[in-house]
Amino acid sequence: MQAELHEGDSQDDLLARIRMLTGRVTEDRLMTQDAIYEAQQQQKQRHDENLVRIFYKIGDLVLLYKSQLRGKKKLQDRWKGPYYIHEDLGNGVYKLRTLQGDILKTPVNLERLKLYNQCMEPYQSILEDLLQTTPVEVTPFPLPYKPNMKPERKFEILCNALNRIKHFNNRLLLLVHLYYLGRFLEKETESSVQRSYFVRQLTAHYRTSATRIFYIFEIPGAKQIMRTKKTNVSLLRELNTQEYQGLVLQASEIFNGVEN
After folding, report:
1. 123: which residues sit within 8 A by CB, 6+ positions away?
2. Cβ contact 229:191 at 8 Å
3. Average pLDDT of the chain?
4. What share of the chain in percent tops pLDDT 90?
Protein backbone atom coordinates (compact mmCIF):
# COMPACT_ATOMS: atom_id res chain seq x y z
CA MET A 1 0.00 0.00 0.00
CA GLN A 2 1.49 3.33 -1.08
CA ALA A 3 1.22 6.62 0.81
CA GLU A 4 -0.38 9.04 -1.66
CA LEU A 5 0.58 12.72 -1.72
CA HIS A 6 -2.15 15.21 -2.62
CA GLU A 7 -1.91 18.78 -3.74
CA GLY A 8 -2.84 21.06 -0.89
CA ASP A 9 -1.62 18.73 1.88
CA SER A 10 -0.12 20.58 4.80
CA GLN A 11 3.59 20.39 5.60
CA ASP A 12 2.82 18.20 8.61
CA ASP A 13 0.89 15.78 6.37
CA LEU A 14 3.77 15.64 3.92
CA LEU A 15 6.31 14.94 6.68
CA ALA A 16 4.10 12.23 8.17
CA ARG A 17 3.78 10.48 4.81
CA ILE A 18 7.56 10.70 4.22
CA ARG A 19 8.24 9.16 7.63
CA MET A 20 5.78 6.37 6.84
CA LEU A 21 7.46 5.62 3.51
CA THR A 22 10.91 5.68 5.11
CA GLY A 23 9.80 3.32 7.84
CA ARG A 24 8.44 0.85 5.30
CA VAL A 25 11.73 0.86 3.40
CA THR A 26 13.67 0.20 6.59
CA GLU A 27 11.26 -2.57 7.58
CA ASP A 28 11.55 -4.20 4.15
CA ARG A 29 15.36 -4.04 4.34
CA LEU A 30 15.41 -5.68 7.76
CA MET A 31 13.05 -8.41 6.59
CA THR A 32 15.32 -9.07 3.59
CA GLN A 33 18.38 -9.25 5.83
CA ASP A 34 16.61 -11.72 8.11
CA ALA A 35 15.64 -13.88 5.14
CA ILE A 36 19.21 -13.90 3.81
CA TYR A 37 20.61 -14.79 7.24
CA GLU A 38 18.11 -17.63 7.67
CA ALA A 39 18.97 -19.02 4.21
CA GLN A 40 22.70 -18.86 5.03
CA GLN A 41 22.16 -20.70 8.32
CA GLN A 42 20.15 -23.41 6.58
CA GLN A 43 22.89 -23.82 3.97
CA LYS A 44 25.57 -24.02 6.69
CA GLN A 45 23.54 -26.60 8.59
CA ARG A 46 23.14 -28.75 5.46
CA HIS A 47 26.90 -28.45 4.81
CA ASP A 48 27.78 -29.43 8.40
CA GLU A 49 25.43 -32.42 8.24
CA ASN A 50 27.04 -33.64 5.02
CA LEU A 51 30.63 -32.89 6.06
CA VAL A 52 32.81 -35.93 6.59
CA ARG A 53 35.79 -35.09 8.76
CA ILE A 54 39.01 -36.61 7.42
CA PHE A 55 41.58 -37.56 10.01
CA TYR A 56 45.22 -38.08 9.09
CA LYS A 57 47.83 -40.52 10.28
CA ILE A 58 51.51 -39.89 10.95
CA GLY A 59 53.46 -39.91 7.71
CA ASP A 60 50.61 -38.74 5.47
CA LEU A 61 51.48 -36.09 2.90
CA VAL A 62 49.21 -33.05 3.13
CA LEU A 63 48.85 -29.53 1.78
CA LEU A 64 48.35 -26.57 4.15
CA TYR A 65 45.80 -23.85 3.40
CA LYS A 66 47.22 -20.34 3.59
CA SER A 67 44.86 -17.66 4.92
CA GLN A 68 44.25 -14.88 2.41
CA LEU A 69 46.24 -11.89 3.56
CA ARG A 70 45.39 -8.30 2.73
CA GLY A 71 47.27 -7.10 -0.30
CA LYS A 72 47.88 -10.62 -1.66
CA LYS A 73 46.80 -11.38 -5.21
CA LYS A 74 43.57 -13.35 -5.43
CA LEU A 75 45.00 -15.78 -7.96
CA GLN A 76 47.98 -16.72 -5.80
CA ASP A 77 48.20 -20.37 -4.81
CA ARG A 78 46.31 -20.76 -1.52
CA TRP A 79 47.84 -24.18 -0.71
CA LYS A 80 51.38 -24.71 0.51
CA GLY A 81 53.40 -27.87 0.80
CA PRO A 82 53.44 -30.79 0.78
CA TYR A 83 54.21 -31.55 4.42
CA TYR A 84 54.33 -34.75 6.44
CA ILE A 85 51.97 -35.29 9.36
CA HIS A 86 54.54 -35.44 12.16
CA GLU A 87 52.41 -35.76 15.30
CA ASP A 88 48.72 -36.20 16.11
CA LEU A 89 47.85 -33.92 19.04
CA GLY A 90 44.23 -35.10 19.19
CA ASN A 91 40.90 -33.41 18.36
CA GLY A 92 41.96 -32.92 14.74
CA VAL A 93 45.10 -30.94 15.55
CA TYR A 94 48.45 -31.90 14.05
CA LYS A 95 52.09 -30.95 13.93
CA LEU A 96 53.62 -30.86 10.46
CA ARG A 97 57.11 -31.59 9.16
CA THR A 98 58.66 -30.27 5.98
CA LEU A 99 60.14 -32.59 3.38
CA GLN A 100 63.55 -31.47 4.64
CA GLY A 101 62.72 -32.68 8.16
CA ASP A 102 62.00 -29.33 9.90
CA ILE A 103 59.04 -29.44 12.31
CA LEU A 104 56.61 -26.50 12.08
CA LYS A 105 56.24 -24.80 15.47
CA THR A 106 52.54 -23.95 15.18
CA PRO A 107 50.03 -26.85 15.31
CA VAL A 108 47.43 -26.92 12.53
CA ASN A 109 43.73 -27.81 12.59
CA LEU A 110 42.59 -30.46 10.13
CA GLU A 111 40.21 -27.94 8.49
CA ARG A 112 43.30 -26.24 6.99
CA LEU A 113 44.65 -29.48 5.55
CA LYS A 114 43.93 -31.65 2.56
CA LEU A 115 45.56 -34.84 1.33
CA TYR A 116 48.34 -34.38 -1.18
CA ASN A 117 47.25 -36.11 -4.39
CA GLN A 118 49.64 -39.03 -4.61
CA CYS A 119 48.32 -40.62 -7.79
CA MET A 120 50.26 -38.66 -10.39
CA GLU A 121 52.30 -36.20 -8.35
CA PRO A 122 55.98 -36.03 -9.32
CA TYR A 123 57.32 -36.12 -5.76
CA GLN A 124 55.53 -39.33 -4.82
CA SER A 125 56.34 -41.06 -8.11
CA ILE A 126 60.07 -40.36 -7.85
CA LEU A 127 60.10 -41.29 -4.14
CA GLU A 128 58.55 -44.65 -5.00
CA ASP A 129 61.32 -45.17 -7.56
CA LEU A 130 63.96 -44.40 -4.95
CA LEU A 131 62.46 -47.20 -2.86
CA GLN A 132 62.45 -49.75 -5.70
CA THR A 133 64.53 -52.83 -4.95
CA THR A 134 63.90 -54.91 -8.06
CA PRO A 135 65.47 -56.13 -10.15
CA VAL A 136 68.24 -56.86 -7.67
CA GLU A 137 70.96 -57.16 -10.30
CA VAL A 138 71.08 -54.32 -12.82
CA THR A 139 73.68 -53.17 -15.29
CA PRO A 140 73.50 -49.46 -16.09
CA PHE A 141 74.36 -48.07 -19.47
CA PRO A 142 78.12 -47.39 -19.59
CA LEU A 143 79.69 -43.95 -19.62
CA PRO A 144 79.89 -42.75 -23.23
CA TYR A 145 83.38 -41.31 -22.70
CA LYS A 146 86.67 -42.41 -21.19
CA PRO A 147 87.64 -40.97 -17.77
CA ASN A 148 91.00 -39.64 -19.01
CA MET A 149 89.47 -37.49 -21.75
CA LYS A 150 89.60 -33.71 -21.55
CA PRO A 151 86.45 -31.99 -20.17
CA GLU A 152 85.66 -30.37 -23.53
CA ARG A 153 85.67 -33.75 -25.25
CA LYS A 154 83.55 -35.37 -22.51
CA PHE A 155 80.97 -32.62 -22.81
CA GLU A 156 80.87 -32.93 -26.58
CA ILE A 157 80.33 -36.69 -26.42
CA LEU A 158 77.56 -36.34 -23.82
CA CYS A 159 75.71 -33.72 -25.86
CA ASN A 160 75.98 -35.79 -29.03
CA ALA A 161 74.70 -38.85 -27.18
CA LEU A 162 71.70 -36.96 -25.78
CA ASN A 163 70.85 -35.58 -29.21
CA ARG A 164 70.74 -39.12 -30.56
CA ILE A 165 68.89 -40.60 -27.59
CA LYS A 166 65.97 -38.16 -27.79
CA HIS A 167 64.91 -39.89 -31.05
CA PHE A 168 64.83 -43.38 -29.50
CA ASN A 169 61.97 -42.94 -26.99
CA ASN A 170 63.99 -44.85 -24.39
CA ARG A 171 63.24 -43.46 -20.92
CA LEU A 172 66.03 -45.24 -19.02
CA LEU A 173 68.67 -44.51 -21.63
CA LEU A 174 67.79 -40.81 -21.50
CA LEU A 175 67.71 -40.65 -17.68
CA VAL A 176 71.05 -42.37 -17.25
CA HIS A 177 72.78 -40.09 -19.74
CA LEU A 178 71.24 -37.02 -18.10
CA TYR A 179 72.61 -38.38 -14.82
CA TYR A 180 76.07 -38.66 -16.42
CA LEU A 181 75.75 -35.10 -17.70
CA GLY A 182 74.79 -33.85 -14.24
CA ARG A 183 77.70 -35.73 -12.66
CA PHE A 184 80.09 -34.27 -15.21
CA LEU A 185 78.89 -30.70 -14.52
CA GLU A 186 78.88 -31.03 -10.74
CA LYS A 187 81.89 -33.29 -10.13
CA GLU A 188 84.20 -33.40 -13.13
CA THR A 189 84.60 -29.79 -14.22
CA GLU A 190 87.83 -28.21 -13.08
CA SER A 191 86.45 -24.87 -11.84
CA SER A 192 83.22 -22.92 -11.42
CA VAL A 193 84.21 -20.86 -14.45
CA GLN A 194 84.53 -23.99 -16.58
CA ARG A 195 81.25 -25.34 -15.23
CA SER A 196 79.49 -22.08 -16.12
CA TYR A 197 80.98 -22.25 -19.60
CA PHE A 198 79.45 -25.66 -20.24
CA VAL A 199 76.13 -24.83 -18.54
CA ARG A 200 75.60 -21.82 -20.82
CA GLN A 201 75.69 -24.16 -23.82
CA LEU A 202 72.78 -26.24 -22.52
CA THR A 203 69.08 -25.55 -22.84
CA ALA A 204 67.17 -24.94 -19.60
CA HIS A 205 65.49 -28.30 -20.22
CA TYR A 206 68.75 -30.28 -20.15
CA ARG A 207 70.36 -28.14 -17.46
CA THR A 208 67.50 -28.57 -14.98
CA SER A 209 66.90 -32.25 -15.72
CA ALA A 210 70.59 -33.22 -15.51
CA THR A 211 71.21 -31.38 -12.24
CA ARG A 212 68.11 -32.72 -10.53
CA ILE A 213 68.47 -36.36 -11.50
CA PHE A 214 72.14 -36.32 -10.50
CA TYR A 215 71.54 -34.97 -7.00
CA ILE A 216 68.45 -37.12 -6.38
CA PHE A 217 70.25 -40.30 -7.46
CA GLU A 218 73.79 -39.28 -6.49
CA ILE A 219 74.12 -41.79 -3.63
CA PRO A 220 72.54 -44.91 -5.20
CA GLY A 221 73.89 -44.03 -8.64
CA ALA A 222 72.85 -45.07 -12.13
CA LYS A 223 71.94 -48.58 -10.95
CA GLN A 224 68.94 -47.23 -9.04
CA ILE A 225 67.84 -45.25 -12.09
CA MET A 226 67.71 -48.58 -13.98
CA ARG A 227 65.16 -49.81 -11.37
CA THR A 228 62.81 -46.82 -11.82
CA LYS A 229 59.30 -47.33 -13.17
CA LYS A 230 57.79 -43.84 -13.27
CA THR A 231 60.55 -41.23 -13.17
CA ASN A 232 60.89 -39.24 -16.39
CA VAL A 233 62.11 -35.84 -17.51
CA SER A 234 58.65 -34.24 -17.19
CA LEU A 235 58.33 -35.31 -13.53
CA LEU A 236 61.81 -33.99 -12.75
CA ARG A 237 60.95 -30.57 -14.13
CA GLU A 238 57.52 -30.42 -12.44
CA LEU A 239 59.08 -30.67 -8.98
CA ASN A 240 58.99 -27.44 -7.03
CA THR A 241 62.10 -26.44 -5.10
CA GLN A 242 60.85 -27.84 -1.79
CA GLU A 243 59.93 -31.19 -3.35
CA TYR A 244 63.29 -31.44 -5.13
CA GLN A 245 65.25 -30.72 -1.95
CA GLY A 246 63.04 -33.16 -0.06
CA LEU A 247 63.84 -35.97 -2.49
CA VAL A 248 67.57 -35.33 -2.16
CA LEU A 249 67.18 -35.63 1.63
CA GLN A 250 65.01 -38.73 1.32
CA ALA A 251 67.59 -40.42 -0.89
CA SER A 252 70.29 -39.66 1.69
CA GLU A 253 68.19 -41.22 4.45
CA ILE A 254 67.09 -44.25 2.43
CA PHE A 255 70.53 -45.22 1.24
CA ASN A 256 72.22 -44.62 4.55
CA GLY A 257 69.83 -47.00 6.33
CA VAL A 258 67.84 -44.27 8.08
CA GLU A 259 64.49 -44.35 6.34
CA ASN A 260 61.92 -41.75 7.23
Report:
1. 61, 82, 99, 239, 243, 246, 247
2. no
3. 83
4. 52
Q: What is the largest CA-CA distance in the chain?
A: 113
**pTM (2 d.p.):** 0.60
Residues 203-241 as b or e (16 or more Cβ within 10 Å = b): eeebbbbbbbbbbbbbeeebebbbbbeebbbebbebbee
The beta strands (E) that lie in the chain are given as 61-65, 79-90, 93-97, 108-109, 113-115
Domain count, the chain: 2
Whether 148 maps to a domain, the answer reads yes
For 85, phi and psi rounded to 5 degrees?
Answer: -70, 115
> Whole-angstrom Cα distance, residue 108 to residue 94?
5
Question: Chain centroid to CA 107: how far?
Answer: 20
95-149 per-position pLDDT tens digit: 999 877 889 999 999 889 988 765 447 888 999 899 999 899 999 899 999 999 9
Is 45 within the bounds of a domain?
A: no
